[in-house]
Write a structure and sequence with these properties.
The structure holds 2 protein chains of 2 kinds. Chain A is an alpha+beta fold. Chain A contains 14 helices and 13 strands. The radius of gyration of chain B is 18 Å and the shape is globular. Classes of the chains: A alpha+beta, B alpha/beta. Chains A and B meet through helix 1, helix 11 and helix 14 of A and helix 2 of B. Bound molecules: adenosine-5'-triphosphate and magnesium ion (MG).
Chain lengths: ~375, ~230
């Protein structure tokens, strides 16, 4: 511990070099922190998916519709607790750019199946009673400035009304919150009846169903029962657990986690080279001083540790500042009026970052530390 | 073995192997240094002065032979034991001062004390005393680059004696200084030898410097030679 002063003096002897190495580390950890927050947000769709929930889609693919008559038949399947159905509306608010996730649903059952969307019982009753009512997620409501009680028009980029209009009027009945901080609150739900009666495409079709089962253990049996029910019909179904469905959906965007991992790895590789190289140089410049310290009686092991601590400090300072900056970025992204999943920079990111700090500090420090360890006094002092 | 003998070199050989070449610097060298001696070692370049000093200071090992310090073998110690031995017994003074550029005078002098069990307070006291001894108390906070060559060498002397070693090893301590500054440094060494009982071994090219020593030996091609001191 007596060496702390020496280590700090060595660390700060070339302020510009210190700044550049810390800055490189800082950037890499900021990229790491921000991208990890994104990745975790996307993963949250999978992680937060309920184990006892299934999704029933058209076997051809999930954009194909199903007859509404299927809903009651699925309800009758053993071990099914509740069923709701959803139609993608293609909604946008005021300008086509402002698109968002909006579904026409079966309001009576919807909140039983998707119970992570939280509104009061009174709000729920009010919604069921109001045919033109919608419930909007907290985050989307905030970004459009919607208040409960307000009447708003929403356009569809797919459907039109029978009179040719593409806009529908809605009452914002309630703003729902998520049961978990990462629960999606960027979606809007409204009555299927209102949709079905007004749109001009011809009715009685649904997009897909959400099914809640009695027990995740029963999922397999329920899946088999549902798909058997519609086998060899014009619209066969494919029933999958929600987790698998969400995962497949995310994978449609591309292998996100691979992309994020590659970017983070590239960033870390770059700082490994930059910081490692700078450490090797800076220790080489101190050859003579290290020789003198050894002459005075500092053991090689002690000098080895001092060099290693120095590189660990660079990684620690840059790394922690970087993650802190990522935290700032994440809160800015969350505040921005764009629809993204809620980003959370949690303790696990900090823990991971600390681990990487240790690994990085070790890798960048080990070569110069070994050089210092092995440095022979005679050669060190005769080299001038 | 007399109690008065601090250092005893017995049958020392030193060879450097470079590829296929073997350079023999010493062959069966014997040497005794008395406690309290102030010995000057002179000799032409390449005669082995620095090599000898390195072996005495325990930074280099003889190829064969025994180095006995204060009745104990030094040449058989492990690297870490040698480091501890150096810290306890030897103060080093170099031609080019070799101060740590990022530490001020005080912190430079403190370095050897980091190897002791002394607390911060006691270390500060000892450092102040050592700087006082070399008359540099007023420069305690100065960085090496803010000091003249002579002042830097005085800081180096303070560093060499702060942990109170019995032995001071100096390799051309005045080689980089002008006459007057050199004399100041040499007077300081004389004082340390006379009043503080330090045994001093000093390598020098400068006959004037050697005059400060109690005795002078001449090395040539790894052997001590008798030589009249030219007037
Ligand atoms: N590490 C080494 N490897 C190989 N040869 C060495 C090494 N150190 C010293 N020598 C050789 O040993 C001999 C003695 O060198 P040394 O440095 O002891 O001489 P010196 O008397 O101190 O000379 P100078 O007055 O120039 O300082 C020289 O021939 C030198 O080349
Ligand atoms: Mg020499």
């Amino acid at each position: 511990m007596k060496d702390v002063y020496l280590i700090l003096k060595n660390l700060t002897r070339k302020p510009l070099r210190l700044f550049l190495t810390v800055f490189a580390t800082f950037i890499a950890f900021m990229i790491f922190g921000t991208l990890t927050a994104f990745q975790q947000a996307f993963d949250a769709g999978v992680d937060l998916a309920a184990d006892d929930r299934l999704v029933v889609v058209n076997k051809i693919n999930f954009t194909q519709t199903l007859p509404i008559a299927y809903v009651n038949r699925v309800r009758a399947v053993e071990d099914v607790v509740a069923v709701t159905h959803l139609n993608w509306f293609g909604g946008y608010y005021q300008e086509p750019r402002a698109q968002f996730a909006m579904f026409a649903v079966d309001a009576e059952n919807f909140l039983t199946v998707y119970d992570e969307l939280v509104i009061t019982d009174a709000e729920r009753a009010a919604w069921i009673a109001n045919r033109q009512g919608l419930i909007a997620g907290k985050s989307i409501a905030e970004s459009f400035g919607w208040q409960a009680g307000e009447r708003i028009p929403v356009n569809s980029n797919i459907f039109s009304q029978r009179d040719g209009r593409t806009d529908w009027d809605f009452d914002v009945v309630a703003i729902y919150e998520g049961a978990d901080p990462q629960t999606d609150t960027n979606s809007v739900y409204f009555h299927y009846e209102y949709f079905n009666e007004t749109q001009s495409f011809g009715g009685d079709f649904i997009g897909f169903m959400g099914v809640r089962t009695t027990d995740p253990e029963r999922n397999e049996a329920v899946i088999a029962a549902i798909d058997d029910l519609f086998a060899n019909s014009p619209a066969e179904t494919e029933t999958v657990p929600e987790k698998a469905f969400n995962k497949a959906f995310i994978e449609q965007i591309g292998n996100l986690s691979l992309i994020l991992t590659s970017v983070v790895l590239a960033a870390f590789f770059v700082i490994l080279v930059i910081v490692g190289n700078s450490m090797i140089l800076s220790i080489r410049e101190r050859t003579r001083e290290i020789g003198v310290m050894k002459t005075l009686g500092f053991t090689s092991g002690r000098i080895f540790r001092m060099v290693l601590v120095e590189s660990l400090l660079i990684a620690l300072i840059g790394g922690m500042l970087g993650v802190a900056a990522a935290g700032l970025m994440v809160s800015l992204v969350n505040q921005a009026p764009i629809q993204l999943p809620v980003l959370v920079l949690g303790g696990s990111v900090w823990t991971q970052a600390l681990l990487y700090v240790a690994v990085l500090g070790f890798i960048t420090g080990i070569v110069p530390a070994m050089n210092a360890l092995r440095l022979n006094i005679i050669t060190a002092l005769s080299r001038s | 073995m007399s109690d008065d003998i601090l250092f005893d070199l017995r049958g020392i050989s030193k060879k450097f192997v470079k590829g296929n070449d073997t350079i023999t610097v010493f062959e069966n060298l014997d040497m005794s240094i008395a406690r309290g001696d102030f010995l000057a070692i002179m000799g032409p370049s390449g005669s082995g002065k620095t090599t000898l000093l390195n072996m005495l200071g325990g930074v280099d090992q003889p190829t064969s032979g025994e180095v006995v310090f204060d009745g104990k073998r030094v040449d058989t110690l492990s690297e870490n034991q040698l480091a501890a031995w150096r810290a306890n017994n030897v103060g080093f003074i170099f031609q080019f001062y070799n101060l740590m550029p990022m530490l001020n005078a005080e912190r430079n002098v403190e370095l050897p004390l980091l190897l002791t069990r002394l607390g911060r307070g006691q270390r500060k006291k000892n450092v102040a005393a050592a700087l006082e001894l070399v008359s540099l108390s007023d420069r305690a906070k100065h960085m090496p680059k803010e000091l003249s060559g002579g002042q830097q060498q005085r800081v180096a002397i303070a560093r060499a004696l702060v942990s109170d070693p019995k032995l001071l090893l100096c390799d051309e301590p005045t080689g980089d200084l002008d006459r007057q500054t050199a004399d100041e440094i040499l007077e300081m060494l004389t004082l340390l030898n006379r009043d503080y009982g330090k045994t001093i071994i000093m390598v020098t090219h400068d006959p004037e410097a050697a005059k400060y020593a109690k005795r002078t030996v001449h090395l040539d091609k790894g052997e001590f030679v008798a030589k009249e001191l030219a007037a």
